[in-house]
Design a protein that fits this description.
This protein has about 475 residues and is of the alpha/beta class. It is built from 14 helices and 18 strands.
Amino acid sequence: MADSFLEFDQFGLFNRRRAMQWAGGTLGLNLGSLWRAQSYASPSIALPRTGHNSPIKSCIIVFYYGGPSHLDTYDLKPDAPAEVRGEFQPIATSAPGIFVSEHLPKMSRVMHKVALIRSMHHKNRLHDSASTEALTGRPSPQGDREEFAPINQFFPCFGATLSYLWQQQHIEIPHAALPFVFHNVIDTPCQGGGFLGTKFDPLQISLDLETNGYRAGALTLPSGHTASSVSDRRRLLETLELAATSKALTPVGHQWRMFCDKAFQLLGSEALRHALELTRESQETRDRYGYGTAPVSVGEGGGGGNGSEMGYGRQMRGQNLLCARRLVEAGVPFVNVYDFRQQGQNWDAHFKNFNQHKTHLMPLADQSLSTLIDDLDERGLLDSTLVVAMGEFGRTPKINQDGGRDHWPDCYSVLLAGGGVTGGAVYGSSDRMGAFPATEPTTPADLAATIFWRFGLDPATELHDLTGRPHKIADGQPIKSLFA
């Protein structure tokens, strides 16, 4: 038994599989897709700085999957024909001259802290292709693909790029993603590291429907184990390895050791555990973000699915943003929050657009996003945290025969708050019908450049894919006029 236990494997490590099963297997130490030993080993690079006086420390992207209607939220057209302007009326806001939908009363009171881009556009008309461009700043190399045909991610998402560029800073959790429920129907595409490798995928945080709480998958301590016991087992494993081998590790062996070290570090992370424990917040704070305890019928929007799961999950929409704020406080620089993809419950309102928006989409979005902005401000975090709220595209100007609006990437709106943005500002405009940019047309590449620029990074910084081909971290230009 001893000889077998101490034998060396092809990587120059003693029988690590058996050792890990013995020393760590009972801890559930299964990293899955978070860090694979075959991840692309990325070299460190020098980081150019833009010279901006106050780079942000964090960014939260709230991604409304399905495509919210810009014409019914932040770019209403009250003077357009009835088949374009729809049912909703504009209301004045705290920012002079800016009007939003009557179903966004709470957002109307924080618009002096918000900037709007009303001229965003691209060419992808299908959900996953459009999401790819929205979340990476580049169109998918596979083109505008049907969403039911999986799209392999090539370009890294924003958080993955930041993780790569900041890897020498040894940030415990550089990037986290909050899926809506633990089976998000289909994962929102392009959350990961792309050609940088799965090492730079986000830490996936899921919702436990039984407790309405959050967990970090395989990095959650199993019952009966503490951070102290994890440390003890790690030290024992290191002692055994040092005693068992004097051989130099191969590059893959070094990388495997790095993954193990990172796994043990996160298993013992009190900061992560505390950030996910929303019960540490007062009930008043949780209520401010929007919180309920009973399942809600999924029939309001005409969708299907498991009523209990989607009902509980929908009520966690606001709690997702509260969790994002807690992750930022815990030192996570980049957090993505995704709405789920259940048809009829997301923003893909091909029919009954106005009923869906006013009954179960806009009320919680209005409450949770406005609270996030105010909460960050009250805690002194808004200036250093950029909040981006967007979908993958907008909706058609003309209402269809089912009372819905269809996909429309030709012009839509994106909301920015914090991070030094000039509150009450508007960049670009749409035409009379909300169909195309009228002034200052803007692309996802420009938004990507803006995010990286606000982190103090030069958008022209180059990354290299597996073939050695260089790629700028963003092909667009930062929208500097929106920031003081």
